[in-house]
Specification:
With 69 residues, the protein is mainly alpha-helical. Helix 1 crosses helix 3.
Length: 69
């Protein structure tokens, strides 16, 4: 099966459906699947552009979660 940047982006979206991830977490998870670095970067850029990955919002939500415990 040919790996395309669209397939890597789809893999990123599948990961994000379970919970929010930071940029670094998502990059690490995609790298573990041994996708090419340039395709990982494309997927991450698209996720940021679409605001599916937003480290500032992720940190805010994380802090809110910690405060509520």
């Amino acid at each position: 099966m040919e790996i395309t940047k669209e397939k890597v982006f789809d893999a990123a979206l599948r990961i994000l459906t379970y919970r929010a991830n930071s940029y670094h977490e998502l990059k690490t998870k995609l790298a573990k699947k041994e996708y090419p670095e340039d395709m990982i970067q494309f997927a991450l850029s698209e996720c940021e552009r679409l605001r599916f990955v937003d480290d500032v919002e992720f940190a805010r939500m994380y802090c809110e979660d910690l405060k509520s415990r």
